Amino acid sequence: MTARLLLLLLLLLAPAAALADRGLDLEIGKALFERLWVEAPASTRAADGLGPLYNARSCAACHPAAGRGRPPAGDDPEDQGIGFAIRLGNDPVYGRQVQIHGVTGHTAEGRVAATWQDEKVAFPDGHVVVLRRPTFTVTGLGFGPITAAVSARVAPPVRGMGALEAIPEAAILALADPEDRDGDGVSGRAARVPAPGGGMALGRFGRKASHATLESQDSDAFFLDIGMSTPLHRDPWGDCTPTQTACRAAPHGDQPQFGGLEIPGEVLALVDGYLRALPPPGDRKPEGEGAALFTATGCAACHTPRFDTGQFDTGGGPVHPYSDLLLHDMGPDLADGLDEPGGTGAEWRTAPLWGLNRLAADEGRLALLHDGRARGVEEAILWHGGEAARARERYRGLSRADRDRLLRFLRSL
Ligand code: HEC
Ligand code: HEC
């Protein structure tokens, strides 16, 4: 065979080989997302390094089927929710999150619980909705009192991350109106957060848009939730502070062949790649009738129905997140008083609404909003305040028929 023929053959075969590799990478990425990490030292050193203090042993434990979590139900003291975490504003003892588990011989930082208070909201036409206002508590504190700000978070769904990543930065910035120059009551601020490579960048991921890249978000998850080090968080003891000496002194899973890390860059990249390739969850064509009401009521001012992207690798073309990825002040009821690199006290990133159709069957038992307090779409709307207060009031003023149309539309996204 001549060298030219060999080259030709290689070129012809290369795309197929690359495709097969990609398929394999996604399988491995999925397995890593579902993998139950174990405490160090274990016989399979590639799977150890959990904790010593941690919230869950796998990504999938908090994002079941790449979906969302829920808060504690409140009627069973054993129930600490699923994918539910108490974030902290950098507590000197507890760090950035309350870890509810410890490996053998290590005390958990505490247990999380919720109590719920019913509150009625009446509409001008007599319709009544019962909201449940949460009080979240941490009991059995292992290291004395918590002194930092406390914020309850439920794991959001993690489908469509590649699509969010592919939205051009300029398109997001074009929607920002931090001074509310157009006077519509809706401002919207772009998050500027530290970029993994240095400098500042647009924040897109997380409930307060505190992460510029999927790599940074996923690295934070390994570190904070599972207690494992990555190239972006090199300490093997996760969120343990200098005061938590037993945790820091415990055996860890960092290994020389992994560059002194528990999760080397290649492993992190496989998890990122798996999430990036999961298609957005809005897999049906939404019902047309309520779309105009969605805009007229003011929902679309934040829940942007569509962006064009050139380079989205799970299909290309437009994406339909129903979010502007900007931060909005949502008023005192939703405020948590915790400042992050992205959003501050009352600010939240507009929650994407794609995929609500997957939840329609569970309406009334859902866990919407950052802490999962809303059991359905209508409850979620009624908690909107701050910049979204006008839209909420317009919704309350709609006729029953129009409200039903709008709700049907939302449940079809
Ligand atoms: C203890 C539960 C828990 C575990 C374990 C967990 N997560 Fe999460 N995840 C959350 C919570 C809570 C949030 C929201 C955080 C916030 O407030 O920004 C989140 C947010 C995310 C987001 C951002 C989604 C968006 O819309 O911007 C991604 C991506 C993500 N997690 C990926 C992962 C990966 C990958 C792992 C495993 C390495 C993981 N998570 C493990 C609870 C968890
Ligand atoms: C000023 C911006 C803004 C406007 C206007 C707005 N929203 Fe939202 N919406 C948000 C933000 C921010 C969140 C996330 C709040 C949180 O997590 O606590 C959210 C969350 C939601 C959720 C919960 C989604 C989930 O997965 O948890 C629903 C449903 C929703 N909005 C529907 C609507 C509807 C319907 C309207 C119009 C009546 C509307 N929103 C108007 C900003 C807005």
UniProtKB/TrEMBL annotation:
Keywords: Heme, Iron, Metal-binding, Signal. PROSITE patterns: CYTC. Residues 1-20 form the signal peptide. Pfam families: DHOR. It comes from the Bacteria. Residues 285-413 form the Cytochrome c domain. PANTHER family: CYTOCHROME C DOMAIN-CONTAINING PROTEIN, CYTOCHROME C PEROXIDASE-RELATED. This is Cytochrome c domain-containing protein. The lineage of its organism: Bacteria, Pseudomonadati, Pseudomonadota, Alphaproteobacteria, Rhodospirillales.
